[in-house]
Structures are given as C-alpha cells and as structure tokens.
C-alpha cells in the first residue's frame, strides 16, 4: 500500500518534496526505449546516447518530467504541446507506389541542418523544416507520414525523461542494455519470482543471486523496509550495484544482512566460528571452492591467482556482520528463498532450503531448464517439498494503433525458467524402513486341485 499512500499524499499536497528530484538521488534517464541509471550531482557532465548535459536543472522538478537539452548541455523542462502536426501534415496520398527512395527528395543538406542547430533551433523546429523541404512528404500515406515524423524526432529531438528508479524500470534497463549481467532475467520473470516467493513486508527472506544486485533490490523494494533480508553471496564480498541504483532510504539497509555461501555447511553443522582470523581463511577457501567446482578451469586459474595476490583482511566490522547474519539464519525459520544465479542451482538450493521453516515458498531461476530439472528430481527424491512446478516465461508486445494493431516484429526469444515449490516438515523414518518405499505386491496363493 506504499504506492497508494504516496498517491494520496501527493493528491493532498502533503510532503510534495518526496516526489521531486533532489541532489544526490538516484534517477533513471529515459529516451525512447533506452534507459540509464545515474546519480544527481551538480556540475557533473552526464553522457547519455552520445549526448552530454548537466542534471543541475532537474533538481526540484517532479519525477517523470521531460527535459529538452539546449545549448551548453542545460536541461529545460519541455512545455506541453497541444498540436503535434502542422497543417501540411494533413495532406496525404493514397499509396506509396510512386515514391522513389533515391535520396534526392530532401532539399536540406547535412550542412544546412548543422547550421540550423548552430542557430539554436530546437529538435521540433528542425523536424518541421525537414517536412517543409521534402518533395515526397505530401505524397506519402498518413501512416507513412507519421512513421517519417517519428523517425526524425528520434534523431533530432534532444529530449530526456527523468524517472524514479523502480523494479520494473531497472529490470528493463538491464535487460535492454546488459542482459548478461542479470543472467538474461526478464522483467516479467522477475515479477513472477516475487509473487511465487511470496515476498511481502515483515518477512524473512534469503536471496542468492548473481544478477548485479537487481533481484536483491527488487526483494527489498517489495518488503518496503520491514522484515529482514539475508544476501547469500559467493566470492569475497556481495555485489550490490543494481540494489544501490534503487536509492533506498537508510532504514532499508538496516534490514539487510550478508552471509558468505561458503560458510553454510559450517553453520548447518553448528561449527561456524565468527572470529575475524577465520573469516579470512574461510573466504579464501570459498573462492577456491567456487573456482574448482562452479566455473571452468580457465577462470579457475585466474581466481586462484587472484587469491594468492590479493589478501583479504578480516575486520571487526566483517565479524559483526557475519555474527548478525548467522543469528538470523540459526533459527532455520526463514519465510522465503529466492535464487537467481549463473552457478549451478542444485547444490545451492539443497543447502539453503534447510534454513526455511515448513510451509514456506521458494523459487529458483535459471536461463536453462536442464539445471532446474535436476533440482526437481533431487527434491522429489529426498522429500521436504511439495507443489513443485517448473515453468517457462513468455511475453509478447503488441502495437496498438488505429487500423494497425499487430504483434511487434522484434520480441524476446525467452524469459528463462522458474522452479517453485513449498517446503514441508519431514518425519524421521523408522528403523529398518525406507522413506517413500512402496510396499511389495502381494502374491496370490494358488491352490492345487486334483481331478478324480
């Protein structure tokens, strides 16, 4: 209900500052279908889509405002336009059969367009000049004219929209620009993970991900700063670049704990030592284990070299963090488990599922279905989980316009696979019996009959 309360507060005019851009905020810049996450810093040059500008004038403006980039890299809020097209744009031809694309229909040259830019003309005015100097524009159909205008606006209109970071916006940004960093996790699949994992405020959630912190940030956003999140991380430290882009308040970070995945077995066995000197050795062992068992041999040699050359010093802060996370995990009463990693999920799932309380959901993401099939088989063999479901995600975008509604020509080939289920309490098997073993079939006793 956080979004509803924010909407009501904005409608009443209360605390309007939380809906405005402040210095130091993390924001997302949008131009067309391209996104970029930046931090508002005055007098700092920002480069976005081969164009530079300063975000100083964005401070104090409402989120969702569209700015024009004027001379000197200054942002100027765009004024609302009542009429998009000119009077000339109303004239249209019946078809495009007689239009020849020979490159001679446009009277303005590249030098003329550069001169217009130097004179201070805005993108909309340059587009209008291109329309007036096109010899074939009036002969195009109405649909072709709109397509032409849209193409020229995208090229010459220097506009940028400033958005508030959110799970959907950041997921679309990563998937569009750097999908490999988030294991090709699509935003609709991420939404299903949050639903299947029953992420809500006040819960205790375990997260193991190698998606640049995007999944971690999505879980923390859904929880709203209430409850506790334990990030199980591989390597020498947690990666939280995506989570930092959300720009959470300080009290959100108070609910976040971190625990190295290499200490899970020691914690389950009750032999975890949280002294700083042992943290250093444990992290080194964790790196070595991951290199030899979770990634290929070539990368393994690189990591082993890294462990030898880069000593990791345990500090009192690391000791306190490890002890605090261990205290949260020792109860083995977590409310949910979310896994989205480039590592093989089976050993991770079988180890972390032991920290969940009975009747709690878990969800595992993988770009490929074969690792999840193995997880499914293992869970069916050992028990402790019900309602196991292996699903794939599929989405299609549609263009919805008058007389031309159809699926988009380009779409995502796949959204990965999800394995979800619910934990249950397992009974200790009786001596001499095997859990889940079916009784042997009874043999019918045949009676011999003799004929007299």
UniProtKB/TrEMBL annotation:
GO biological-process terms attached to the record: tRNA methylation
Xref: Pfam families: Gcd10p (PF04189)
Keywords: Nucleus, tRNA processing
Presence of the UniProt keyword Isomerase in the record: no
Region Disordered, annotated ranges: 82-102, 427-452
Primary location recorded for the protein, binned into one broad class: nucleus
Any single GO CC term annotated in Swiss-Prot or TrEMBL for this entry: nucleus
Listed Basic and acidic residues bias regions: 87-102, 435-452
Magnesium recorded as keyword: no
Extent of the signal sequence: none
Compartments where located: Nucleus
Similarity comment: Belongs to the TRM6/GCD10 family.
Summary of the function given for this chain in its UniProt record: Substrate-binding subunit of tRNA (adenine-N1-)-methyltransferase, which catalyzes the formation of N1-methyladenine at position 58 (m1A58) in initiator methionyl-tRNA.
Subunit structure and binding partners: Heterotetramer.
Official protein name in the record: tRNA (adenine(58)-N(1))-methyltransferase non-catalytic subunit TRM6
Organism taxonomic ancestry: Eukaryota, Metazoa, Chordata, Craniata, Vertebrata
């Amino acid at each position: 209900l956080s979004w509803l309360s924010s909407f009501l507060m904005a409608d009443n005019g209360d605390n309007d500052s939380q809906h405005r851009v402040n210095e130091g905020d993390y924001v997302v810049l949008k131009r067309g279908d391209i996104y970029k996450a930046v931090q508002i810093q005055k007098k700092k040059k920002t480069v976005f889509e081969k164009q530079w500008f300063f975000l100083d004038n964005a401070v104090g403006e409402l989120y969702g405002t569209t700015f024009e980039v004027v001379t000197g890299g200054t942002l100027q809020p765009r004024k609302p336009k009542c009429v998009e097209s000119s009077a000339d744009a109303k004239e249209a031809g019946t078809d495009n059969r007689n239009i020849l694309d020979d490159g001679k229909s446009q009277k303005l040259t590249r030098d003329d367009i550069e001169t217009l830019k130097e004179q201070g003309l805005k993108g909309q005015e340059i587009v209008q000049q291109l329309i007036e100097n096109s010899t074939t524009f009036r002969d195009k159909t109405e649909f072709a004219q709109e397509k032409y205008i849209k193409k020229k606006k995208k090229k010459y209109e220097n506009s940028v929209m400033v958005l508030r970071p959110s799970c959907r916006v950041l997921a679309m940004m990563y998937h569009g620009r750097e999908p490999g960093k988030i294991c090709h996790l699509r935003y609709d699949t991420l939404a299903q993970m949050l639903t299947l994992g029953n992420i809500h405020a006040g819960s205790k959630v375990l997260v193991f991900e190698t998606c640049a912190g995007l999944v971690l940030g999505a879980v923390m956003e859904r929880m709203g700063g209430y409850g506790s999140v334990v990030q199980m991380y591989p390597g020498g430290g947690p990666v939280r670049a995506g989570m930092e882009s959300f720009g959470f308040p300080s009290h959100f970070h108070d609910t976040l704990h971190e625990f190295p995945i290499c200490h899970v077995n020691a914690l389950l066995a009750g032999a975890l030592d949280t002294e700083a000197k042992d943290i250093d050795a444990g992290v080194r062992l964790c790196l070595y284990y991951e290199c030899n068992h979770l990634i290929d041999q070539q990368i393994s040699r690189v990591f082993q070299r890294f462990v030898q050359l880069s000593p990791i010093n345990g500090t009192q802060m690391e000791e306190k963090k490890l002890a605090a996370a261990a205290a949260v995990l020792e109860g083995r009463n977590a409310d949910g488990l979310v896994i989205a990693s480039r590592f093989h999920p089976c050993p991770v799932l079988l180890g972390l599922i032991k920290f969940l309380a009975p009747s709690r959901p878990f969800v595992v993401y993988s770009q490929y279905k074969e690792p999840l099939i193995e997880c499914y088989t293992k869970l069916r063999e050992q028990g402790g989980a019900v309602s196991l479901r292996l699903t794939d995600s599929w989405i299609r975008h549609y263009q919805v316009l008058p007389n031309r509604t159809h699926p988009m020509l380009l779409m995502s080939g796949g959204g990965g696979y999800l394995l979800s289920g619910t934990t249950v309490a397992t009974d200790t098997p009786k001596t001499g019996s095997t859990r889940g073993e079916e009784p042997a079939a009874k043999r019918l006793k045949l009676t011999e009959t003799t004929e007299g």
